[in-house]
Write a structure and sequence with these properties.
The chain is an all-beta fold. It contains no helices and 19 strands. It has two domains: 62 residues, no CATH class; 154 residues, Immunoglobulin-like (Sandwich), CATH 2.60.40. The strands form eight sheets. A four-stranded antiparallel beta sheet has the order 9-10-18-15, with no helix packed on it. Strand 7 and strand 8 form a beta hairpin.
């Protein structure tokens, strides 16, 4: 056993022997890289960050950082093309996230409003799926081509469990209706280049007014520390 004696001072405290452990450092082989602190006294978080009068992080392991935080979207313009009554059109892009904090992450999404023409004269409503039961919280099967609407599917890493396969769709939370944005990717662990695919789908009825329909979809990536 060895001890690394350190002394830390300020106007209000003095701490000696800031680290006391059996072993610590970085170890590697052909298959892994790992850092550890074994036998450290008093490690772990004390208090709750942001909601209590104090927070102390004792020991570096639980907040160990592997990379810088990054969040990218493969393309920001998604074109669903010319919509024909009785047929669904789809288009996709990917989300990629890397976090440096051991507290995981969440990615939220919302739409500015449903698909509509300029000025909101005509609207393509958000989908309610085959059974009329999907919403911004729960995905359901949407395969019937004659059911119009606008919705999205998720596939890939860290997506909500209700996206069972590529036939399950949700509405986006509608900001114009004050609906709360919803989680579309999340993990309690460090994320290293986690990728998901968002597939947008739209369909119209025979009575839908002609025109160019559009909306904006916002993604908010929040790292945890």
């Amino acid at each position: 056993m060895w001890a690394q004696a350190q002394e830390m001072r300020s106007n209000s405290f003095s701490i000696q022997f800031g680290n006391f452990n059996t072993t610590s450092g970085q170890k590697s082989s052909a298959n892994y890289n790992v850092t550890d602190t074994v036998g450290q006294v008093g490690s772990g978080p004390y208090g709750q960050y942001g909601s209590s009068s104090y927070f102390v992080g004792g020991g570096f392991q639980y907040i160990y950082q592997i990379d810088t935080f990054s969040f990218t979207i493969s393309r920001i313009a998604v074109d669903l093309g010319v919509l024909t009554p009785g047929l669904h059109n789809t288009a996709s892009h990917t989300l990629r996230i890397t976090t440096k904090g051991a507290g995981g992450y969440q990615v939220f999404a919302y739409e500015q409003r449903p698909l509509q023409t300029q000025g909101g004269i005509a609207v393509i409503p958000d989908t309610t799926c085959n059974a009329g039961s999907c919403d911004q919280v729960t995905a359901q099967v949407w395969t019937t081509q004659t059911i119009p609407g606008f919705g999205f599917n998720m596939a890939g890493n860290d997506i909500p469990a209700d996206f069972v396969n590529n036939t399950f769709f949700r509405q986006f939370a509608n900001r114009a209706a004050s609906e709360a944005m919803q989680v579309v990717m999340s993990s309690a662990n460090i994320a290293n280049s986690r990728i998901s695919t968002v597939t947008y789908k739209a369909g119209v009825s025979g009575s839908q007014a002609a025109g160019n329909y559009q909306t904006g979809v916002a993604y908010v990536a929040v790292p945890g520390y």
